[in-house]
Amino acid sequence: MSARVVAPELAGLKIVIMVGTFVRGGCERQAFLLARDLIHKHGLNAEVWALKFPGEYSQEFEAAGIPTKTLHFQHPRYGWVQHSWPVLRELKKSRVDILLPFTTWPNVVAGLTWRVAGVRLCIWGERHAGGERIPGVERVAVTQYRRFVANSTAGVEFLANVMRVKREYLSFVPNGIELPNIAPSTEWRAKLGLKPDQLLVVKVANVTNFKDHATLLRAWKIVQDEWQDDARPVLALAGYLTQDVYPECERITREAGLQSTVRFLGGIRDVPALLNACDLAAFSSRKEGMPNGVLECMAAGKAVVASDLPGIRDALGPEPDGVLVPPGDAGQFARRLLDMLRNPQRRAAMGEANAVRLHTEFSVERMVERHLQVIRASLTMPGQSWWRSPQLSHGRGRA
User: Fold this and answer.
1) Taking the model in full, what pTM does it have?
2) How far is CA 13 from CA 97, 219, 220, 296, 397, in A?
3) Which of 130, 294, 304, 319 would suit a FRET pair with 97, their CA atoms being 20 to 30 Å apart?
């Protein structure tokens, strides 16, 4: 598809999407898809910057023709102005016109720097629905914004009710996911040492605190205890193993005697192939925006058993049938897993429905177009007072 400029006011403007790191994750994947389509389908000048950690994922950006930059920002406990100076300097040097930070740290750093750096427009990107907070400085940074985007209804409510942002300055832009094009393969099943009749359950999420792998592992112990057949199902966990959480997960696995049916895969590149090989997806979490780890499973045509959170309901639909569990409830999670594992017809029907919903509601094209609509509208916003608190409604400067 040839590149086209979607709006005259965006031609020639430099757009930077700012992420925390170039470690592979849902946020970084959304940045990749947005930047790729802005450049190659809409003919715009876009780059992706990370605050720190170049990471192997930056190579995939560059290979796709997406310019990248790592700012080597150090997370401070104090002295925010001093630590943010290198970011401000780079924004000025690169003559950035539009800045789109994703997640809390980029939102805060961008909020403290964009006006002084001469950036024309900066849009807060809420992707954790308040799951990651930076006390004090976060509330200072949010006052510097005039426009906000959240990828979940939970994110919208967090910004409106906790951060006290006017609802008319909030936009809901769901994630976009590409449908995988994978031929059936037994490669992953062979890698995992599975027998032909052995069921495979997969969770796609980096092993972090709020992804709550511990609840899923405790549920898996119940599944194993109640399973009657010889070929016990296997649980594969695909995601980076963080040093502050993985040791606890490994301990739970060891003490529950689950080593033979749990596989910690670490970060992998061929997630669609792994999902293609599985029979059921699981996603336990305590707080979410809209998780790619659910959407990718839907794109693969898999049924998903998951924690009952607003962002997950955004993904699966308003009335998912018997697959949502209260966060942290290992007993109910186990029961839902057992129900689905024992019913292949139901798994297939729900997987097909998930694939249809993904295609109609969460295409990359729709996500990109909604971002562009917010950008265009924000560039033409009048300079009115916008903040809910009267004492914060003056001195906003440019858009």
Assistant:
1) 0.78
2) 6, 50, 51, 32, 19
3) 130
Beta bridge partners of 48: 17, 68
Q: How far is CA 214 from CA 8, 94, 234, 355, in A?
A: 50, 44, 16, 28
Q: Phi and psi (nearest 5°) for 141?
A: -65, -40
What is the C-alpha separation between 399 and 397, in angstroms, rounded?
7
The closest alpha carbon to 20, from 111, 128, 103, 129, belongs to 103
The DSSP secondary-structure symbol of 209 reads G
Token pair of 357 as six digits: 């919903």
8-176+363-392 with 187-361: one CATH topology?
A: yes
Are 328 and 286 within 8 A, CB to CB? yes
What is the C-alpha to C-alpha distance for residues 294 and 276, in angstroms, rounded to an integer? 14
Third-level CATH fold of 8-176+363-392: Rossmann fold (3.40.50)
Q: Could you give the residue ranges of the DSSP H alpha helices within 44-174? A: 57-63, 80-93, 104-113, 137-142, 153-157
Q: Order of strands, edge to edge, in the sheet holding 98-101?
A: 68-70, 45-50, 14-19, 98-101, 121-122
Compute the distance between CA of residue 391 and CA of residue 365 in angstroms, rounded to an integer. 40
User: Is the Cβ–Cβ distance between 40 and 9 less than 8 Å?
Assistant: no
Q: Which CATH number describes the domain made up of 187-361? A: 3.40.50.2000
Contact indicator for 207, 213 with CB cutoff of 8 Å: yes
Which is nearest to 288 in space by CA: 266, 267, 268, 307?
A: 307
Amino acid present at 267: G
User: What are the domain boundaries of the chain?
Assistant: 8-176+363-392, 187-361
- Per-position pLDDT tens, the chain of length 399: 456 655 677 889 999 999 999 988 888 999 999 999 999 999 999 999 999 877 778 899 999 999 999 998 877 766 676 788 889 999 999 999 999 999 999 999 999 999 999 999 999 999 988 878 888 889 999 999 999 999 999 999 999 999 999 999 999 999 998 877 665 556 899 999 999 889 999 999 999 888 999 999 999 999 999 998 778 999 999 998 988 899 999 999 999 999 999 999 998 888 889 999 999 999 999 988 889 899 999 999 999 999 999 989 999 997 777 899 999 999 999 999 999 999 999 999 999 999 999 988 999 999 999 999 999 999 987 643 333 333 333 333 333
DSSP, collapsed to helix, strand or coil, labels residue 202 as strand
